[in-house]
Amino acid sequence: MYLSKYLILSLLSIMCFGRYVVNANAGFMKPIPRVLCEEDNVKGCKIRNPCHNLAAVSGDVNPIDINKIYEYAIYQLDAKANETSVNTYTIQFFKDQENTGFQLLTFNQNDMQSNNSFYAVKMDPIKINTKLMDNIEFDKDGFVFGTLELTFDARSGGGDVYYSCASVRLQKKNATTKSTGQKIKVESTLTLTDGKGKQRGDIESDGIATEIVVPDLINHEATVSSEDIIANDSTEGDIGQDNGNENANHKDNSSSNLSIPSMFVATLISFISLLVIRK
What we know:
Strand content: 25-35%
Structural class: alpha+beta
């Protein structure tokens, strides 16, 4: 009789908490990915196949000025980290309609071992990357279209390999814009390069929570002088400002939303446990 009681409790626990169990996964928050990866929309954190392809980049894109330092933002839903794991992140650029990737950064997970965490990763200006610059040709408007692909290899920690892709436009000039984009919070900023395009031997992590701006997407055909451009790397604007864009990130709100069902489940199990034991 007592065995059946505990069996019932075990089954209830599995049914209630099973929906919260996830494999290691992560994705871009900046640049804005094609499939969102964020706390309240994790579909884009779980892509298990390379997401670059030979289709032409179309629609809205992320503008990246090749003359400026660029900060990526990564949302790590599940780190799948342990004492011996050496999970890795790699960021590559694929030219429009080409299948050869140019590695921009690669680094070990190291201190990025928290679940449901946010990190910024600094990269030296792309123009310093000689190998990439020697293999791309800017069009008459000074643009190169392509895909940035983030690969999170968590197999060392018992997970899988996950991908996140963003449509981008490399450009020689920064846009003068009306929008300030969206601010997001990150828990730490990683510096991987030496300021001259070469990767450091060790990752430098400041461990300081800060805010970075995620510029809005721009129209594929917009020129740097066009009023249609709505992207900006400025640091002005309200945190979590909602301009109707589905790509806005709201960490605080989604965190509270997730905590409510967890509290309900815990209370339900405790109540059922008392009922079963009293019988």
